[in-house]
Predict the 3D structure of the following.
Amino acid sequence: MSITLKDIQNNGVVGAGGAGFPTHVKLQAEPEYIIVNAAECEPLLHKDMQLLEFYGDAFIDGLNQVIKITNATSAIIGIKSKHESIIANLQKKITANIKICPMDDFYPAGDEITLIHQTTGRIVEPGQLPISQGCIVQNVETIINIALNKPIVEKFLTIAGEVKNPMTVKVPVGTTFAQVLEYFEITTKNYIIREGGMMMGTVQTNLDAVVTKRTGGLIILPTDHNCAVTYKRYSEPKNTIRIAKAACDQCNFCTELCPRYLLGYPVRPELAMRNIMFSSDDDQRINIGNAFCCECNLCTLFSCPEGLDPAGATFIEKRVAQEQEKWQGLPVKAHPMMPYRKVPTKKLMQRLDVLKYQDKGPLQSIQFNPVFVRIPLLQHIGATAKAVVVVGQHVKKYDLIGEAKTGISANIHASINGTVTVANEKEIVIERRL
Ligand code: SF4
Ligand code: SF4
């Protein structure tokens, strides 16, 4: 069956790897290569590998649909070579226009710019999009969603950390974290939830937060875990600034291991720290190149021997730099030491103190029956969808409840059968019909 851009648009498909960019917009480009992000580099998350193992046929079908829609020459699957059995299975299914690129096991292998460099040898210049190098990047789950050709009303995610049985599950969009975690035995009393990954995720203490089309995982950590303490300490920029002013010895490790710096980008976390140290309130120095930080957090959570927050300092500069004029530097070139400075995932996990957790997340078929779902009308990059249902209306799973606005936006659908109890410009609440 041929799937069209219109089908993808109608189904509300968005990037499931975390970015949430509407897929029908992305696929309007005419790339040379479709690069599949199967690098899955966030410690403890296993969703994409589980999907490749159990939905391999749908994945290859979806990938061929994407190649056809975009007229791409071929697709390259960037996947870590350690996943030998998954690669062997994919080898049996792929057609001549699809190649597999086995990668080392390092972080952040899944960063879009790093992935393109690893799979094609090309470097996307600072401030440019992947299409400037003839590439578009698609995540594994997004490709499977294209093949399944149904409205996106469920999300795969890994639950890991302080839980008895870590696993990957499929959850109706809009289910609260509290309702998800009812199915898990949490092995610590006081905990935080790291949503989306140890490195690039966010801390969520509110159990009323909901699963969206972008949620990739929930990691449960004790509140006194090293990382939980670090996340808390640096959740306030004032702490980042206060500690930077007092303690950075300018050893440069943060920059020397920065994946963007190693690709030749003008990202310099040590300069962000120095700027904080030597700027006064009315003389803020700024390194405009820090606009291209990918927010991988490696410098704070791995590289800095002093436990400082160069990532936070860089984010502060990034927000300001993005408002300033465009980067006009020379074409970039990878650092000659780059191949030697990939941070191995196991080493990273040791530093994060998560080796003690079961590093697995088998796909399990759990039937989640939330009594209600709270579905945000903005689960994507772009404009918020417009509610097209009213309070009291009965809806069925897959019904359209939020219509995409013109431009960059995405449709939203009901994830359960039920009655609408809230419908406003931000969200739709549906209570299950019993
Ligand atoms: S932030 Fe840390 S790693 Fe970076 S220069 Fe300062 S002390 Fe060194
Ligand atoms: S978070 Fe740190 S290591 Fe990562 S890209 Fe930004 S500056 Fe570089």
Remarks:
- The domain at 371-434 is CATH 2.40.50 (OB fold (Dihydrolipoamide Acetyltransferase, E2P)).
